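Example S7 (structure tokens).
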């Protein structure tokens, strides 16, 4: 529970950052068309390249999911960071993209945009619907609790956005 609160506090802090992205998400395609096309064919390859660039090609700084997930620092990243990053971008693609974005936001104090908020809400809804469907299948006694708990988490998160 304390970790969840820390993540919510960090998300709220990003709202107060002063800097903005040089290119927002809605203009990213026209700003770097080649990279966008490449990401359609091999998204994990682009995610790998962008994370490495965000780390200034210093893989000794690499931590799984940039330190934003519970698995961070527990995957043996220091022994073989290139392999760990490759595993991250292929097995946890969404987390790798979000983690790189958060890493850059926190390093350069870049505020969250409305487009970011929309994507975050859609990801949360997807996550919560997956949890709810799992609850229906797994145990009818806990179904009501699992439906109620994600709704409370979602309401808290939406207030931050």
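Recovered sequence:
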């Amino acid at each position: 529970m304390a970790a969840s609160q820390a993540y919510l506090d960090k998300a709220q802090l990003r709202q107060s950052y002063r800097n903005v992205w040089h290119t927002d998400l809605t203009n990213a395609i026209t700003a770097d068309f080649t990279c966008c096309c490449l990401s359609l064919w091999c998204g994990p390859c682009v995610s790998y390249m962008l994370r490495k660039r965000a780390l200034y090609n210093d893989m000794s700084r690499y931590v799984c999911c940039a330190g934003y997930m519970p698995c961070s620092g527990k995957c043996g990243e220091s022994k073989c960071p290139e392999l760990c990053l490759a595993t991250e971008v292929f097995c946890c693609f969404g987390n790798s993209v979000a983690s790189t974005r958060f890493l850059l936001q926190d390093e350069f104090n870049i505020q969250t945009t409305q487009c970011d908020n929309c994507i975050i809400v859609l990801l949360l809804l997807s996550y919560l619907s997956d949890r709810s469907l799992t609850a229906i299948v797994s145990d009818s006694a806990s179904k009501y609790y699992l439906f109620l708990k994600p709704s409370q988490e979602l309401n808290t998160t939406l207030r931050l956005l």
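Notes on this example. The longest helix spans residues 114-138.
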